[in-house]
Amino acid sequence: MADNYLERRREQYEARKAEWLKKKRHMPVKPRKTTPALPTETKTKDEREDTP
């Protein structure tokens, strides 16, 4: 009895998973919002050597 119960549950799970994956493939991909890169201050080699 327990084996039949587990097998039935596994089959139901596999069916739900297959349906979800099928829907997932047909979903439109949402473009991600990108943030502009923050300007960074870069010092030249000479400027770094001048500061103690």
Would you spell out the secondary-structure blueprint of this structure?
Blueprint: H1 2-25, H2 45-50
Relative strand content: under 5%
Shape: elongated
Category by helix and strand content? mainly alpha
- Helix share, percent: 55-70%
Characteristic terms for this protein:
52 residues, mainly alpha, 0% strand, elongated
Structure description:
The chain is mostly helical and 52 residues long. It has two helices and no strands. The termini are far apart. The mean pLDDT is 79.
Task: Describe this structure in a few short sentences.
This protein is an all-alpha fold. It is 58% helix and 0% strand. The longest helix has 24 residues, at 2-25.
